[in-house]
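dude i think i finally got it to work??
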Amino acid sequence: MDITIHTTALPHEDPDASVAFYRDSLGFEVRSDVGEGKMRWITVGPVDQPGTSILLAPPAADPGITEDERRTIQEMMAKGTYGWILLATRNLDETFEKVQATDAEVVQEPVDQPYGIRDCAFRDPAGNLVRIQELR
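look at this
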């Protein structure tokens, strides 16, 4: 089979703040931005990886969920337990310093994990956990 990861989705509550985090803090490019107000679908991704993207989407836009489910999603987003993504870099310390310098919310400074990974973590403006691990 010839299958690749094309796009993954994360929720957003504030599209402008999310764009600023992924573009300005992580250095991703904005590939598309459609919709209006808070109902915007924004595609971002690494400049040198045009085939891999993150879709930042408004969770309230899904017509298939109930009001109770919407409330649960909003509660989970507020706690930072709804969405997360794992990214990787060759130089974790340098990447951490650059992202931290943008006033991104630090969850964990770079650390060697007992399971063999060295990583750090941030929260994006929607509360999504963004873990960055070092490639070895």
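The helical segments are 15-25, 67-79, 92-100.
im so relieved honestly
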